[in-house]
Write a structure and sequence with these properties.
single chain, 192 residues, Peptide Deformylase, two-stranded parallel ribbon, 4 helices, metal ion binding
Length: 192
């Protein structure tokens, strides 16, 4: 089932999400719905708070970026051909490498894209969809998507990395999003 995506301005996007356990109701179905929602909205990552659930769960599929990149981009990133994973109760252990910029967007903040600086490497502890524990290090675009989605479960948004002046310049657009004055081609709910 395709879930509606919560728009900028909703309280759930600013809460630190909680860990879950094996008793979380219909976890398999929820994960399946997360994948379906992400693909239906042309995303490469989706966090539970974006579908109005304040739990520490997100999904990513960086392989989609590599499948759709131009020929001159091929071989540019160390994580090619990408990764598809579920992250439950994720906690970042450490960052590594140099910070680098990339133009990011967010399904909850449609029609806004900005260059965001992030570390090129992230080590993260998490449970997979079978609730098996892992500690892994990711690089490149995969590391970036993980950091972006991880921010969601920490109540943080990519626009929080912008300089104050740039944020001020986007204020009108952000207000329009929170008031539902934006057209998207996926299901979206706006704050009341």
């Amino acid at each position: 089932m395709i879930l509606p995506i919560v728009a900028y301005g909703a309280d759930v996007l600013r809460k630190v999400a909680i860990d879950i356990d094996q008793d979380y109701p219909q976890l398999d179905k929820f994960i399946e719905d997360m994948w379906e929602t992400m693909y239906a909205s042309n995303g490469v990552g989706l966090a539970a708070p974006q579908v109005n659930k304040s739990i520490r769960l997100f999904v990513i599929d960086s392989a989609q970026i590599f499948e759709h990149q131009e020929d001159d981009e091929k071989g540019k990133y160390p994580d090619e051909p990408g990764t598809k994973k579920v992250f439950i109760n994720a906690h970042i252990v450490e960052f590594g490498g140099e910070d680098w910029g990339y133009n990011e967007g967010c399904l909850s903040i449609p029609k806004i894209r900005e260059d965001i600086m992030r570390p090129e490497e992230v080590t993260i502890e998490y449970l997979d969809e079978k609730l098996q524990p892992h500690t892994e290090t990711f690089t490149g675009l995969t590391a970036r998507i993980i950091q972006h989605e991880y921010d969601h479960i920490e109540g943080k948004l990519f626009i929080d990395y912008l300089k104050p002046l740039r944020k001020k310049m986007l204020k009108g657009k952000l207000t329009d999003i929170s008031k539902g004055k934006v057209k998207v081609d996926y299901k979206m709910v706006f704050p009341k």
